[in-house]
Write a structure and sequence with these properties.
- This protein has 14 helices and 12 strands.
- The protein is α/β, with parallel strands linked by helices.
- The longest helix has 22 residues.
- The two termini are about 35 Å apart.
- Bound molecules: pyridoxal-5'-phosphate.
- Pyridoxal-5'-phosphate binds next to helix 3.
Length: about 400
């Protein structure tokens, strides 16, 4: 059987590993397998490669290499930032985050509540945007940390990180941002942004799954989340995942090198796809603010339908899309992000996210625009909502 061609529109779930990234990783899975903590020559050589990768990821976000701690994923980075703020400030037991954070933050907040911490989840408006006055008023004397994502993974809505950081600084509260979806898609400069902690995950950046980082501003208090060896300057125990770290470094270099071109091209294609869908298919609507938004993301509601049915039909046509956060697919729960935006259960459950990437071509967009209208028409007909032409 000839494998069906895949039209991949789910880059916010994960990205393919770039060939140059794989190439950068392979030496550390074959000949150069030494432990970077070993004092003999081959160990020291591998340690130098880890430092070279650290310098590359640091450059991508305008940080000093010493401010980067490699972790296993974005989830660990988020957990580590929140956990550290609570441990390093024992008198402070309150955490403030938004109701639209990724489950990597929301679920950790729930775990912290069970351990006696107070967690506030800030509401958003129907565009998915925050009221910064409310954020400021919600900071309490016992607030240990404020955590607001740089960009939302489901809608692509971008938050005003610089303004939030400045509110937190004025209030003397630590600020963490989950920039997992922002990396490579919006310009990140940790100095201009003024953040204390920032999380990234390599698999959203054309590198493999299972490697992330936490930026820790020089001078910010930090208590390790994973305690063990002296690795990462005593800030994260565990032998370094050298091959993945090398891949992450190369991915950062590539992202920086093609940032403008990639994003201009991807934004054009996303806009064509979105405009085409809204024009060709009646009773569809965009979820979340049109701007400020990630250039690759479009979250659309298809009135009267269930996202799962649309996704199955698209899958049969070789199109990969998603009904929200990757961790939620397969579940029939409405997205917590769309629900927090005040959407009805029916609209939230009718919504699909298309997320484009570096290898998306104009032909891929045309293909979706040729398949989706008839798919939606057929599903609406089957659900009794519309006549087939
Ligand atoms: N934060 C955001 C905004 C995400 O989109 C994701 C993954 O989808 C994560 C955190 C979790 O990252 P990881 O899969 O590396 O744990």
């Amino acid at each position: 059987m000839t494998p069906q061609r895949v039209y991949y529109f789910d880059h916010n779930a994960t990205t393919p590993v770039a060939p140059q990234v794989l190439e950068a990783m392979l030496p550390f899975l074959t000949g150069r397998w030494a432990n970077p903590s070993s004092s003999y020559t081959i160990g020291r050589e591998v340690a130098a490669e880890v430092e070279s990768a650290r310098a590359k990821v640091a450059e991508m976000i305008g940080a000093d290499p010493g401010e980067i701690v490699f972790t296993s994923c974005g989830t660990e980075s988020n957990n580590a930032a929140l956990s550290s703020a609570l441990i390093s400030q024992p008198g402070k037991r309150h955490v403030l985050m938004t109701a639209v954070e990724h489950s990597a933050n929301i679920k950790y907040g729930e775990a912290l509540s069970k351990r006696g911490c107070a967690v506030t989840y800030l509401p958003v408006d129907s565009d998915g945007l925050l009221d910064l006055g409310l954020l400021e008023r919600s900071i309490r004397p016992d607030t240990a940390i404020v955590s607001v994502m740089w960009a939302n993974n489901e809608t692509g809505v971008v938050f005003p990180v610089e303004e939030i950081a400045s509110i937190c600084r004025a209030k003397g509260v630590l600020f963490h941002t989950d920039a997992v979806q922002a990396a490579g898609k919006v310009w990140i400069d940790v100095r201009t942004a003024g953040v204390d902690f920032l999380s990234l995950s390599a698999h959203k950046l054309y590198a493999p799954k299972g490697i992330g980082l936490l930026y820790i501003r020089s001078g910010a208090p930090f208590e390790p989340f994973i305690v063990g060896g002296h690795q990462e300057n005593g800030r994260r125990g565990g032998t370094e995942n050298v091959a993945h770290i090398a891949g992450f470094g190369r991915a950062a270099e590539l992202a920086l090198g093609s940032f403008e071109d990639d994003n201009r091209r991807i934004r054009n294609l996303r806009d064509q796809l979105e405009a085409g869908i809204l024009r060709k298919i009646p009773n569809t609507a965009l979820n979340g603010a049109k701007e400020p938004r990630l250039p690759n993301t479009s979250n659309l509601a298809f009135e009267g339908l269930e996202a799962d049915a649309i996704l199955i039909a698209l899958d049969q046509a070789g199109i990969c899309a998603s009904s929200g956060s990757a961790c939620k697919s397969g579940s029939i729960e409405p997205s917590h992000v769309l629900s927090a935006m005040g959407m009805s259960v029916a609209r939230a459950r009718s919504s699909i996210r298309f997320s484009l990437g570096r290898e998306t071509s104009p032909g891929d967009v045309e293909y979706v625009l040729s398949q989706l209208p008839k798919t939606i028409s057929k599903l609406r007909f089957l659900s009794g909502g519309e006549r087939l032409p």
